[in-house]
Amino acid sequence: GQTLPTTLLALATPHPDRVAAALRGGDPPVVARIEADTLLFDPRTLLPGQDAALLRAITQAIS
Fold first, then answer.
1. Which H/E stretch holds residue 10?
2. How confident is the model at residue 3 (pLDDT cuts 50, 70, 90)?
3. Cβ atoms within 10 A of the Cβ of 57, count?
4. Which is it for the CA torsion 42, 47, 50, 51, positive or negative?
5. pLDDT surpasses 90 at 36
6. Which long-range contacts (CB under 8 A, 24 or more apart) does 3-11 make?
7. Residue 51's domain spans which residues?
8. Number of domains in the chain
9. For burial by CB atoms within 10 Å, which of 11, 21, 30, 62 has the most?
10. Looking at the predicted structure, is the pLDDT value of residue 45 above 90?
C-alpha cells in the first residue's frame, strides 16, 4: 500500500475520550483519532464545505 501525506488538526484536551464520545454522538457525527491525550482530525475525510460543520461540532463537544 501507499501512504498519502496529510496535515492533521490537533486538539489537546484533558479528557479526550469524553470529547471524542460527544463528537461521535453529535450531528453530524465526527470521528477523531486519539494520541497522547490529543484528538486528531484528518481534513482529507471532509467533503468541500464541511469545515464549518466540523468546527461547530468541535465547539459543541468542548463546551
1. strand 9-12
2. confident
3. 21
4. positive
5. yes
6. 4/44, 6/42, 6/43, 6/44, 7/43, 8/40, 8/41, 8/42, 8/43, 9/40, 9/41, 9/42, 9/43, 10/38, 10/39, 10/40, 10/41, 11/38, 11/39, 11/40, 11/41, 11/58, 11/62
7. 9-62
8. 1
9. 30
10. no
Domain-located, residue 47: yes
Average pLDDT over residues 10-34: 95
Q: Report the mean per-residue pLDDT for the chain.
A: 93
**Is 4 a member of any domain?**
no
Q: Can you tell me the distance from the alpha carbon of 13 to that of 1, in angstroms, rounded to the nearest whole number? A: 33
pLDDT number for residue 39: 97
